[in-house]
Amino acid sequence: DADVTQTPRNRITKTGKRIMLECSQTKGHDRMYWYRQDPGLGLRLIYYSFDVKDINKGEISDGYSVSRQAQAKFSLSLESAIPNQTALYFCATSDSAEGTYNEQFFGPGTRLTVL
Amino acid sequence: GNSVTQMEGPVTLSEEAFLTINCTYTATGYPSLFWYVQYPGEGLQLLLKATKADDKGSNKGFEATYRKETTSFHLEKGSVQVSDSAVYFCALSSGGFKTIFGAGTRLFVKA
Known about the structure:
The complex is a heterodimer. Chain A is 0% helix and 57% strand. Chain A is mainly beta. In chain A, strands 2, 4, 5, 6, 9, 10 and 11 form a seven-stranded mixed beta sheet that branches. In chain A, strands 1-3-8-7 form a four-stranded antiparallel beta sheet, with no helix packed on it. In chain A, strand 7 and strand 8 form a beta hairpin. The mean pLDDT of chain A is 93. Chain B is an all-beta fold. Helix content of chain B is 0%, strand content 51%. Chain B has no helices and twelve strands. Chain B has strands at residues 3-6, 11-14, 19-21, 23-26, 32-38, 44-50, 56-59, 62-65, 75-77, 86-93, 99-101, 105-110. In chain B, strands 2, 5, 6, 10, 11 and 12 form a six-stranded mixed beta sheet that branches. In chain B, strands 3-9-8-7 form a four-stranded antiparallel beta sheet, with no helix packed on it. Chain B has a two-stranded antiparallel ribbon with strand order 1-4. Chain B is globular and about 45 Å long. The interface between A and B is medium-sized, with 22 and 21 residues.
């Protein structure tokens, strides 16, 4: 079974709709991240969380919100989707333990299309 | 701030050719450096890493050496295979909690 799972894998929605993307992990890691991937831009950090009570904005958080429901679950919401939020979204985890060097473990991604 | 610059793709090679993908970085302190690979339809996965100057990371025939004097971490493989076709991301982590990714380089290997 995959260590980091994301649902849904694909989603098509319309402008103005509220969308939630979900991420679960079985790795026992304390840190979780949401990234978006756009062609030619690499991965850009949306939000990150060090634990359930610690959530931080990344470089492109406008238009997004997150919820860390448990150590293993981290969801991303688009409050009112717009077409330029069409992208591939990845959840990732890492372990804060000494010597892990923040190696990231990624889910399979959610392809979101906003019409 | 910290940044990663990697060569633009796509890179197209024939099977058994030599591969180099260039990566340079800007960072304060002593970052850890990574190469991640993304196969079609999948998330990124760690390919190799180096955590201090002059370290060489290696995995699956790929190698990269952490060169502090040139702030580089170039990815190399002596003989590529069709199955190596993927997108490769250079990345750095400094300060222990955030990772900065390059834009990615797409590699196509022809049989």
